[in-house]
Amino acid sequence: MSSGAHRSSVESGETPLGRLSPAARSVWAKHDRSDDAWLPLWRHMADSGAVAGRLWDEWLPRNLRELIAEALPGGAEDGRRLAVWMAASHDTGKATPAFACQVDPLATVMRDHGLRMLTAKEYGEDRKLAPHGLAGQLILQGWLSERYGFPPRVSAQFAIVAGGHHGTPPTHEQFANLETRQRLLHHRGDAEQVWRRVQFEFADGCAELAGVTERFAAWRSVRLSQPAQVALTALVILSDWVASSAELFPYDSESWAPGGVGGPAGEARRLAAAWEGLDLPGPWQPEEPDGGVGEIFADRFELPPGAEVRPVQAEAVRVAREMAPAGLLMIEAPMGEGKTEAALAAAEILAARSGAGGCLIALPTRATGDAMFPRLLSWLERLPLDGPRSVVLAHAKAALDKEWAGMLRSGRRTIAAVEPEASERIGGQRGGSRRRPAGLHAHQWLRGRKKSLLASFAVGTVDQVLFAGLKSRHLALRHLAVAGKVVVIDEVHAYDAYMNRYLDRVLSWLAAYRVPVVLLSATLPAGRRAALAAAYAGPGTASALPGEGLPTESLPGEGLPTESLPAGTLTADTYPLITAVSPGTAPLIATPAAASDRRTEVRLERLDDGLEELADRLEAELEDGGCALVVRNTVDRVLETSEVLRARFGHDAVTVAHSRFIAADRAARDTLLRERFGPRGARPDRHVVVASQVVEQSLDVDFDLLVTDLAPVDLMLQRMGRLHRHPRTRPPRLTTARCLVTGVDWAQAPPRAVDGSHAVYGAHTLLRALAVLLPHFDGEPVALPEGISPLVQAAYDDSTVGPEAWAEAMASAHQEHSAKLKEAEEKASSFLLGVAQPDGRALFGWIDAGVGDADDTAAGRAQVRDSEDSLEVLVVRQLSDGTFTTVPWLSDGRGGLPLPTDFPPGPRAAEAVAASALSLPAAFSKPWTIDRTIAELERLQIPGWQVKECPWLAGELILALDENCRTRLTGFQLDYSEADGLRVSSADVPSFPHDEDDDHAP
After folding, report:
1. Residues sharing a CB contact under 8 Å with residue 780, sequence separation 6 or more, in sequence order
2. Is the separation of the CB atoms in 531 and 504 below 8 Å?
3. Less packed terminus of the chain by CB within 10 Å, N or C?
4. Strand 328-332 to strand 517-521: parallel, antiparallel, or no bridges (unpaired)?
5. What is the rounded CA–CA span in Å between residue 516 and residue 581?
6. CA 591 to CA 259: how far, in whole Å?
7. What's the pLDDT at 412?
8. For residues 752 and 745, what is the distance between their CA atoms, to the nearest angstrom?
9. What contacts 491, CB < 8 A, 6 or more positions away?
10. Rounded to whole angstroms, how far apart are CA atoms 277 and 275?
11. What does the pLDDT read at residue 544?
12. DSSP secondary structure string, 646-681?
């Protein structure tokens, strides 16, 4: 602990909460029904305050300590005092009849001490109006008013921490309703004064314990920011959870008063035993690296022999050193420029400068998150960490990732109090010489959906960040998790209007917390770049970005290959581009050159949308060998295309990739693509990959020829980025990078994309893409990377593009597009968190009318993504004799494992079934079909799997395939194969009927 910290106002003798009256000491806080053991309220208060002090001293990152302390006249010492006081007093509301009546034998003891109360039955439904958090807030506000003269608006900003410590701050209406029902707080008659005296005893004792009694006079003028209130609430929640663990803080009084002798020594012993047992890693506390850029990258990353730091990476480091420590850094650069490494290098610098205690990397999908996780670990292993650090892979299927699963197993241990003098766990269980985890580990206590993101380092889907903008229970914990880290968000261009609404709101809160944020993108439309800057730094900052015509501060190149443009002369399509903004400061702009070895010229050609025409063209193009990528906008088109191409080229010469594979097969497919078509891949002589949008993001693959359905221009450029990506010898016919654009009726004016593409992207973005690409269909190549930003800016700004004959169709499409955007934004607003209110305003109703609990399930993700709930099933095989097995082709010996039904399968088989998760096409979860779908799936109920010992399978929907890997569902035929994934058809038609919102998602 810090030398100036107030551990207690009492250095010897009894502690403040040890001098309570017999009536106060009879009040209970915890009760164990299994053995009727109970914990006094004073004991839980002391434990919670002690834990908060340790969390402040040894776990809470510096940036959050500073955030809480900045409004307090005593600075950091006041901050610590406040945290301890709020944690100690958070359960004051348990000293009320509404709470105490719940366990009658303990209530009887309290009645015997003058604390009379009715029974729980006699209070009836009214008890629900007095949850103990809200009751505690009323008591504390009354105490602050009576003892110290605090006006209600001032006292509320402190006391609402107690009101919200169970995850939901109260509303003004709830507060007023309880104020009018005083009998729930104090029994009527003579006992009322006994209750009031006891409640104030607890409040006085907690204040003395925390050393704040003499601070209240100075605090009457304090105006706590709402972010500080949220952070305090989260800290109190954690303190409460730790102090409520009977394994760490036993109910037996011998743990704090051995031999009947307590006092400060006993308190210190109890806390030390619990903290040793918890063994919670501290925050990351990096020092800013002082070496040159080349030295930093050589130390932190496994660079190939002879590799040099790219200009984008060098500039990102330089901007991170010169920008405000708490700011937004946007890095826009072509694919393959090392943006991830640039972001990690910047994150280390920004963490050192800002006091952030960790790093969160958010990506669009689980697959991209899984691919990023080993890269994060590799970076962390090269950082100069000064002790154990916690790490997490944060998404719903993370435990299926082999690397993370191994860390979970190695980090598994018992959480229990440990006596400081001996390696013995309190309660008599021998702990032996427990090995302290070294380096990086999956901490046992930081598990579960509400705590996992509190690990110092995290990789997860972008949903984990967007949830911070969703009004949901225990939102304060999620805010604490993101506010203590540098937040890196990849593929920012990939999010739609609905998700962007949440992202923008989260950025505004991250700015309020002064969290450094790094955004990565291949390129951003100028309007979207300005919106992101405005969300973080305010609208005035956004108006000063490139293309807006106002002055910017352009950083000099310091000898690097950087285009140094005069301030204020940068254009909207300047590229690559690094932009740093923070509230109240001018933007910093850097314009590094693209790496010289990354330039590619791509020639575009029109191709009619016929499968035989496609097969003929590919046969001619691949006559001398080569590898082609065909990208389709819907899964149905992927499957139709692969069937024709296999008939022409042979089954083994065509690979399929899309979203309708079980999780294990999709992961294996991604690995196969990287191993065959990556930088050092063992490429086949002649091969065709037919893929949906899954191939667009975070896959480092390289093809000789591209055929693609028309898509929005930024996605077209992403797909072109898979062309001639790495230096290699190519077949003579394929030495020029070419992109054949199909999925379009070229005879129409304007040309019309196929229905599936319209359903996915809408007419507006497709027409704009065609219009800006039109000159390139007539011979002018698309130059990558320098052509990326001009094309994107032209496609997404409001200027007129395309032939005059297209004007009417484009205007109609734009009108429809604008209406859909407005609808998406309004829909997103339903549960969107409000902006931070002025300092001093209490968090009343902060998440009122929210969604309840939110997590990384299909239903949870649907709240922050503009999508309907999807149904996920676990796929197994049912043999003719009625027995079940895992699907037969799973690797590592997991295929064909028998699955018992009378009892849970073993861990290996259960994990294999969990790895066979499959998202059904959206048509099965439409409002008019979902009930029938679920009812048919629930016909297969396996009782032996519905037990808590089988968490992988309990409560999951099971899709059982027959020995031929077929089944029927809601009248449709489902066929699954390792090669093709899921095919859906009816008895009358060969493929799944088209549905506009169907299975075109990646």
Report:
1. none
2. yes
3. N
4. parallel
5. 10
6. 71
7. 57
8. 5
9. 363, 364, 368, 520, 521, 697, 698
10. 5
11. 66
12. HHHH-GGGEEEE-S-S-HHHHHHHHHHHHHHHSTT-
Neighbours of 919 (CB within 10 A): 20
* Cis-peptide into 750, omega within 30 deg: yes
Relative to beta strand 752-753, strand 884-885 is unpaired
Residue pair 871/858 in contact (Cβ under 8 Å)? The answer is yes
Query: Residue 627: enclosing H or E segment and its boundaries?
Result: strand 626-631
> Quick check: 74 pLDDT over 70?
yes
How far apart are alpha carbons 599 and 602 in whole angstroms? Answer: 10
Contact 312, 345 (CB under 8 A): no
In the 3-class helix/strand/coil scheme, how is 511-571 assigned residue by residue? HHCCCCEEEEECCCCHHHHHHHHHHHHCHHHHCCCCCCCCCCEECCCCCCCECCCCCCCCC
The amino acid at 892: D
Neighbours of 166 (CB within 10 A): 16
898 DSSP β-pair partners? 885
**Which residue in the block uniquely carries the two structure tokens 């394929």?**
734
Report whether 426 contacts 256 (CB < 8 A). no
Three-state DSSP class for 470? strand
Q: What pLDDT is recorded for position 746? A: 96
The torsion angles phi and psi of 237, rounded to 5 degrees, stand at -60, -45
Mean pLDDT of 10-15: 50
Q: Residue 555: what pLDDT?
A: 45
Lookup: tokens for 331: 């890095």
- Give how far Cα 451 sits from Cα of 96, 234, 361, 394, 475, Å: 30, 11, 17, 10, 11
- From 38, 45, 37, select the one nearest 18 (Cα to Cα): 45
Report angle CA 79, 81, 83 to the nearest 5 degrees: 70
- Using CA atoms, how far apart are residues 432 and 427, in angstroms rounded to an integer? 14
| CA 930 – CA 873 distance, rounded (Å) | 13
**3-state SS string for 326-344:** CCEEEEECCCCCCHHHHHH
Residue 2 has pLDDT above 50, yes or no: no
436-465 as b/e: b if 16+ CB within 10 A: ebeebbbbbbbeeebbbbbbbbbbbbbbbb
Token output for 481: 């998790």
Three-class SS of residue 992?
A: coil
Cα separation, 702 vs 711, whole angstroms: 20
Q: Which two tokens stand for residue 133?
A: 């958090």
What is the SS3 assignment for 263? coil
Q: Choose among 897, 917, 905, 911: nearest CA to 976.
A: 917
pLDDT tens-digit map of 760-801: 999 999 999 999 999 999 889 999 888 898 999 999 988 899
